[in-house]
Amino acid sequence: MTGVRVQDPTPGTVTTHPTDGPLLARVLRPYKPGCAYLRTAEVTRSVDGRVAVHGTFAIAESCYIDDTGHLNAVEVNIAYNQMMYYAVAKSVKERLLPEFADWTLEDYWRHQLPDILIVRFRSNFRRPVDPRDFTGSMEFTGFTRPRRAADAPPLLLADTTFRYADAAGGRCDGGVQLALVGLTGAEGP
Fold first, then answer.
1. What parts of the chain have a pLDDT lower than 50?
2. Of 173, 166, 175, whose CA–CA distance to 58 is shortest?
């Protein structure tokens, strides 16, 4: 990979978790052949407790359209999902975030697709990014637990930011709000 690493959004990093190959393979298992774009994923936890993932990507061929020559909105979303899924799985495995303290990895695998939902997705394309070789980062920036009816399943909202870059100065960034349901541990909702 010749892409440049996106600037670390977590100054004062105290813990770094290099790519966990078996975990990454399991996170990417739901993706169709040719749609697993995330190649490496390093998770960091900063002094203030923020968790981020820094990844390298390669999209040899778009899974849905002829070659556009640049990273497009659909691929931005897919790459984000892969970073986010890995960051949540690694956070659960390593106990990096108290918000996921009730989950085991088995809980995570059960909830990965049906219970981690995108509420809002915003992307800004600053300069075209080469999809064949780029880097990205995603960071959890805040969590809230909205008040809900007593019989409603637990809900956690997670605010995140992301960035992509390539060696030629390509750049894309944005923000995503996630809704995570069923964070009740092994019993489930």
1. 1-10, 13, 185-189
2. 166
Residues 6+ apart with CB under 8 A from 124: 172, 173, 174
- Residue 75: CA atoms inside 13 Å, Cβ hemisphere, count? 33
Per-residue pLDDT at 119: 97
| pLDDT on residue 188 | 37
User: CA–CA separation, 62 vs 71, rounded Å?
Assistant: 9
Residue 173: enclosing H or E segment and its boundaries? strand 171-181
Q: Cα-flanking dihedrals φ and ψ of residue 93, to 5°? A: -60, -45
- One-letter amino acid identity for 6? V
Joined tokens for residue 171: 């750049």
pTM metric for this prediction: 0.88
Closest listed residue to residue 23, CA positions, set 109, 100, 107: 109
Structure tokens at 15: 């813990």
Instruction: Identify residue 101 by its one-letter amino acid code.
Output: A
Question: Phi first, then psi: what are they for 183, rounded to 5°?
Answer: -80, 55
Compute CA 168 distance to the chain's CA centroid, rounded to the nearest angstrom: 23
- End-to-end Cα spacing for the chain: 42
DSSP annotation of 70? S
